[in-house]
Amino acid sequence: MREASLTQDTLYEAVREIKSRHSIVGRDEELAEALMCVSAGRHILIEGPVGVGKTVLASSIAEYLGRPIFRVDGDERYTEQKLTGWFDPPAVMQRGYTHESFISGPLSNAMTQGGILFINELNRLNEGVQNVLLPAMDEGKIEIPRIGTIYAKEGFLIISTQNPREFIATSSISEALSDRFELLPLSYQSEAEEREIVERRTGTRDRKVVETIVAIIRETRVHPSVRRGASIRAATSMAAIMNYLGTDVEDYRKAAYLALPTRIELREDSKKNVYEIIDEIIDKAVFSSASLKPEAKPQDAVEDTKGTGEEKKTIRK
Ligand SMILES: Nc1ncnc2c1ncn2[C@@H]1O[C@H](COP(=O)(O)OP(=O)(O)OP(=O)(O)O)[C@@H](O)[C@H]1O
Ligand SMILES: [Mg+2]
């Protein structure tokens, strides 16, 4: 297995390999920590706000390990039988409750094949389903009615992701489950890294457009009326839309009106609607960023444009 040969010296080589294979920007420390944990045979839980790169990190590590990966997308309707396995009714009619009638679920498959169980959105699973994971994680076995005990082969690991507890539609995992994971918290990346992600993910080469878009989405995270700001997904979306637009304020506004309302959440006490808040964000981000500030021009050139309405054209209000 890949990680068995990892040493302190080769850890960062592995990080570089993962980053280049998946075109990941930054996150060197987080990847190194995750690799340390999985090399030590620990299960990891990657926690962070929406769109911060949890899935990309978890899946790139799972893939690097070179073991079979079984994926579960957590939601409240996911059942214990789906996770462990179930009996196929026609097969049961023919053969009864035998091993041949049993269809293994992702947990049983990951255990018997020494693979990775990759659980996206762990805290969306209901408590009964979460409890099934407990013996698998520390004793390496689960009991399945009519089948018996399933044992985990060496290499079995769980890599999970979840949004932080305070997010709506998520609940917290039990203390017992939490006690079986190493926690890897992810927060938003730096402005420079976010710009690079947008460039890589959209192929947009216009530096000013990228800078302005990233300034806009970062502004959503600090606006006092916004409870949940936009992630890098909003920035890549805006950049993709801007490919079909020009580069003046109205173009940014159009892209923001399309990309932001679904991705930001206003505080309950906000007196303004989402479009009014976006207008405020645009005004602040666009006019304060270097990109749309009038270029420093010789004095006479500035005089020339006065009164022509040229500059007004770009400002809606
Ligand atoms: N460090 C990064 N380098 C390159 N791309 C990134 C990075 N972080 C995030 N992305 C990109 O941003 C998008 C969102 O990332 P991802 O889906 O991993 O977020 P998430 O935290 O799992 O979101 P959610 O909470 O909605 O599940 C993806 O397109 C991903 O490729
Ligand atoms: Mg995700």
From TrEMBL:
AAA+ ATPase domain boundaries: 40-187
Domain of life: Archaea
Bias type Basic and acidic residues, positions: 294-317
Pfam family, one: AAA_5
Protein name per Swiss-Prot or TrEMBL: MoxR family ATPase
SUPFAM superfamilies to which the protein is assigned, alphabetical: P-loop containing nucleoside triphosphate hydrolases (SSF52540)
Region (Disordered): 292-317
Signal peptide boundaries: none
Entries under InterPro entries matching the protein: AAA+_ATPase, ATPase_dyneun-rel_AAA, CbbQ/NirQ/NorQ/GpvN, P-loop_NTPase
One of the record's GO molecular function terms: ATP hydrolysis activity
Organism: Candidatus Sysuiplasma superficiale
